[in-house]
Structures are given as C-alpha cells and as structure tokens.
Amino acid sequence: MKNIIKISILIFALSISCIVSSQSIRAYTLKMPAKVFAGGGKLYVKALKSEDAKFPNFGIQVSEAIKNQLITAENKDREVKASGSLYNPWFTTKFYEIVNSENQADIVLGGKYKFSTQQDASSKLHSDTTWVLDNGTANKKPVSYFYFEYQNNGKVSVNGQIIAKRKGQIIDKHDFSDKLDGSKRSFLRKPKGSSIDSLVTKLTERTANSKKNLYSPEFVLEKYNFKNVKTKNKAYKSELKTQMKMVKANLKSGNLDAAAKILFKLNEQESSSNLYYNLALCYELIGNTEKAAQFYEKSGNSSGVKRINRLMKTEKTIESLGLPIIEKDFDF
After folding, report:
1. What is the mean pLDDT of residues 220-236?
2. Residue 276 sits in a domain of what CATH number?
C-alpha cells in the first residue's frame, strides 16, 4: 500500500512538473559580436597583409571568413524576420552594408600578420646497462646496449592585427596570436613530423574559424519559461486554472499577444510576483525594455533584472549604429 502511495505521489509530481514546464515560448534573441563600430555604414573587408610576403593565403582566408559571416548574418536577418518567432522589432543582424570596394566604404577592415616557423631534426645515441641471468646459473651479469632517440621538430606561430579604419582614421585594433607544435619524438626509428605547410593550413583554418564572428551578430533561438501562477483564494482557483491553460495554449502556438492579454486581466484581478515576472517577460520579448524593467522590479526577480539590463545595453549599442529603435507595445 505504501509503495502505491509513493508511486501516485511521484506521478502527480511529474505531471505538475510537466504543466509548469509547458508554460514556455520559443523566440529569437540577439547575440552581440565582440566588436561594433558606432555609426555603422558601408563596410569593406580586404585581405590581411603578410609583413614578410609569406603564406599569403592566411590573410585571404581569414578576411573571407569575416566577410562571409557578415553576409550570412544579413541573409539570416531576412529568414528570422519571416519565421514568426521574432517578437522584438528592433532586433537585427544587418549592422552594416557590405560593399565590394574600398572606395565605396565608410569602414575598411584590413590588417597585417607575420609567421614564425621552425623545422629541424635531431638524433641522439643512448647507452644503458641491464642485468640478466647467466646461463645455467643463478648469477646475473651486466649487458650493455645502445639505442637511438629521434626528434623531428615542426612549429609555427602567427602574430597579427586586424585594423578598422573610418575615413582613413583608425577606430579599432584587434591583436591576435596562435601557434601549433607538430614535433614528434620516437626511439629506434625516425618519426614522421608535421610539415610546415600542413601546420600553416591547420592554423589558418583555426584562426579563420575563431575570428569569423568577431564583427557579426547572431540570432539564437531560445526557450523562455513563464512562471506558474497560484492563488490562495479557493473561489478563484478554478478560474485561474482555466485562464492559465489558455495562456499555455497561446504560448505554445506562438501567440504572445493573446497570452499577454490574459496575463494582464489576471493581474488586474489578483497581482503576484509571478504574474509581474510573466508580464515583464512579455515586454522583454517585444523589446519594450522600459516596461519590462518596471515589471521585473515589481517581481523582485534579480535574474530578470540582470537580463533586462543586458538587453538595454544591446539596445543602446544598436542605436549607436544609427539603426531605428521602435519600442513596441501590446495593442489591447
């Protein structure tokens, strides 16, 4: 009997957990790049220049990776805005207009780099002594032996700087460095070490991959969880439960406006910290940072306050690019 009760409690707990977790909506948020150029405008990306004319493909590939990611971000902007899962009207990944010549550009991205390489091989003769049993006796005798240690060294490193200029004036510098060691050591036979060319190729791919998002914003699809709303008023419980089911259904279908309308009516009947949080989240999703901040303060939820402060910082950065900020409100 006790086991049956325990199982029933567990099933009930799991069902409640499922109800709470279903109060969510999937929406796009904006991941900001490390570098943003205030004023925005037309941007041209030219190949980084080798200071000693070695390995020119490195500069070409790194620059192409940066440029292609900016173009990808521009294409993603159109795709996300047509998806129905973006509720914030001022979110965008089109920070600049990418142009194909330096003469057309307001901002020019370029830079320089230099490689250092090392490749050599060495060998060393070692001698050692071991003790073995003498044939037919219990005595041990020393036996000397020799072996070779081979070392094949292959190392490359790169140091560089990506430079942004506006109207010929430097507005930003980004220093970078990386290295690869393909050295190998073995005994008795020579190891096959990595060639300088293969190491440079690997380092080029790694640098291009790590720098491609340096200037590109990115849309990220996230799950936003709303809090469950409860009441101590027994006469109100049934109505509240019905209304929250409608909220969940609207959130599941992506109808944020309808869900927010119900939450506002519930808040007029009986306010709570969880309702304030849910209303703040609705305003956060549509990019109304002022009202979202007000409701997060009322909810007393510190993580919500931190999140909206970050969003306000993003809003100011986008505004600094000269892009429009339209703070939407609910129409009800």
Report:
1. 95
2. 1.25.40.10
Gap between the terminal Cα atoms of the chain:
53
Per the domain annotation, does 167 fall within a domain?
no
Long-range contacts of 129-138, Cβ-Cβ distance < 8 Å, separation of 24 or more? none
C-alpha–C-alpha distance, residues 265 and 267, integer Å: 5
In the numeric block, the tokens 């491609």 are attached to 212
Evaluate whether residue 242 is within a structural domain: yes
Q: Is the residue at 217 inside a domain?
A: no
Burial of 306 (0-12, 13-18, 19+ CB in 10 A): exposed
Inform me whether the pLDDT recorded for 1 exceeds 70.
no
Show Cβ contacts of residue 7 under 8 Å, excluding neighbours closer than 6 positions. none
* DSSP reduced 3-state for 74: helix
Say how many domains are in the chain. Answer: 1
The pTM of the whole model exceeds 0.85: no
Residue 236 structural domain: 226-320
